[in-house]
Structure formats: C-alpha cells, structure tokens
C-alpha cells in the first residue's frame, strides 16, 4: 500500500443537493444531482446516496455532514489505495452482467463494516477498463465555483411555498422513498473537467 495517490489516478463525481427537496434533514433521505461534468449534472435524474457515501460524509475529519446536506460534496475515487488523506477501501462483493445489449457491468462494493456502493463500468464495452477488485474513495467539500455554478443554474432552487402536513402534529407510518440510489461511475477512459 502506498502513502499517496497521484492526481492522474483519481476520478471524481460531483454530488450537489437538489433544491426541490427542501425539508429533508437526513442524508439517507436527501436527493442529490450528480455528474462528472456540468452537462451530466444537468441531465441526470436525482438520486439518494448509498450507505457507503453516507458513511464517508459522516466520518469526514472536518464534519461535512451539514455542508453535504446544504450544498453537496465531491467524491474522489481511485484503484490504488492510500494510508493517508481520508481514503476508505471498498472491496468488490459481486459483479453483475446484464443480458440487455449495451448495458455495462455493475459491481457491488462493501467496506469492512458493511456499507455499500454500486459502480458501473463506463465507456465503450471493448475500450473501457474492467471494474477492479477494490476501489478507494474519499469525500471533499464542494469548491465555491461549483456552488456558484449550481446557484446560477437553479440547482438549489426550492419549491415556491411550503405547506405543513399532518405528520407535523401526529406520528404517521413512514412511507418508503422510491427515488433510486446513486450508482457511481467507473474510471473514465479520458479526463473530464466539470466546468
């Protein structure tokens, strides 16, 4: 295992809080927009966070929980581990291949306490890298220029009004959220910039 990870070995995913999901106060219930580029972030549907990302945010040394709920964060991923810098190792549990044409393989990854993430191989089927046996992840705060971009593009805009519901006064059974869980991208074949 190495002490540091080189910049060229890291790929990133930008995760920004969806403003239309105003009144959620828990990461497990919050909805996020995501993408490797600003174009992807605008096009892709909102998703909930997998347990592995929630654990990374909760255990971040600078307490990113509130910031993640308010604005979002960056996920950095690498195939090569590091003993420094807040990296957490996730090991492949199962690889799933689809019988559908042009569907990339997906892998379920878990850390040592059982938090999970799902990865999808990206790129052309014959030209993309296979999903590795283990992937290391860390989270970082969202830079101000990304937050400014999100404001400019209406990502943080919420609904115009807020209406109290019955569960504000009495306990009702919880309804299950049907929003899908975020699937992380595998390593891209070429470097991509967000803006």
How would you describe what is shown here?
- The protein has 195 residues and is an alpha+beta fold.
- It has a domain at 9-88 and 135-159 and 173-185.
- It is built from four helices and eight strands.
- The protein has helices at residues 38-43, 51-58, 65-70, 144-152, and strands at residues 10-17, 32-35, 72-78, 88-96, 106-110, 116-120, 134-141, 184-185.
- The protein starts with 9 loop residues before the first strand and ends in a 10-residue tail after the last strand.
Summarize the structure.
The chain is α+β, with helices and mostly antiparallel strands. It is built from four helices and eight strands, in the order ββαααβββββαβ.
Search tags:
single chain, 195 residues, alpha+beta, 4 helices, 8 strands
SSE blueprint:
Blueprint: E1 10-17, E2 32-35, H1 38-43, H2 51-58, H3 65-70, E3 72-78, E4 88-96, E5 106-110, E6 116-120, E7 134-141, H4 144-152, E8 184-185
Parallel strand pairs: 6-8
Antiparallel strand pairs: 1-2, 1-3, 3-7, 4-5, 4-7, 5-6
Q: What value does the Rg take, in angstroms?
A: 18 Å
- As residue ranges, the low-confidence spans are none
Bin the strand percentage: 15-25%
| Fraction of helical residues | 10-25%
Task: Write the H/E string, N to C.
Answer: EEHHHEEEEEHE
Note the quaternary state here.
Answer: single chain
Helical element count? 4
Largest sheet: 8 strands, mixed
Side-by-side strand order of the widest sheet: 2-1-3-7-4-5-6-8
Shape, principal axes of CA atoms: globular
Based on secondary structure, the structural category is alpha+beta
First-residue to last-residue Cα separation: 33 Å
- According to DSSP, the number of beta strands is 8
Can you give the mean pLDDT?
85
